[in-house]
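Appendix B, Record 12. Input sequence as logged:
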Amino acid sequence: MHRRRDELRLLDVTLLPAHRGRGLGTRLVRALLDEARARGVAVSCEVEHDNHRARALYVALGFRPVFEDPVCTLLSWVAPDDDG
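Logged structural output:
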């Protein structure tokens, strides 16, 4: 993760195969989203087009695509407005 004044940048989440599918990655990303919410900043990450599992996780957690290139998609998360 890279902390910037106006955003947190998720650089990579890599788990050993024996630890995948147990919710650990989800918990790690949610912890980052909690920090971002507390700081009032966005979170961004890049995911390769063929990494369907990671993309599905990020989208399920509220990330939205903001830019695509031939290799990957830049995703961004902003805390939902609690008024709605």
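Residues 24-39 form the longest helix (16 residues).
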